[in-house]
Design a protein that fits this description.
By secondary structure, the protein is mainly α. It has helices at 30-36, 44-49, 53-100. Helices cover 60% and strands 0% of the residues.
Length: 102
């Protein structure tokens, strides 16, 4: 609702005309807010697609899932490479032992 100075309409009867903030403490709860909330400013083109917190969180969860899967695949690949290398070395050693004891 847009009001001009001539209108004396109160949107809420519980609201006072004026409030005294002279004894207020600036930033009193900012620490708590920082601990429990991450605020991110979306660029306009991104905000057109992700219009609310739920859509942003779902997209980020999906990306995180993809990243975790990729890391697990990479770790398995590294472990498998290590296993293959150990097998190759053991086969070489076995072959050397066979030729040495002939």
């Amino acid at each position: 609702m847009i009001m001009n100075q001539n209108q004396n309409v109160s949107a809420d009867e519980d609201m006072l005309e004026e409030y005294d903030f002279s004894k207020g403490l600036r930033g009193k709860y900012v620490g708590r807010f920082k601990e429990g909330c991450n605020v991110v400013l979306l660029e306009p083109d991104v905000a057109e697609i992700f219009t609310d917190a739920e859509s942003v969180n779902n997209a980020l969860r999906n990306i995180a899932h993809i990243i975790r899967n990729q890391i697990q695949r990479n770790n398995r690949s590294v472990q498998q490479t290590g296993l293959d290398e150990r097998r190759r070395i053991m086969a070489q050693q076995a072959e050397q032992m066979k030729t040495h004891y002939r």
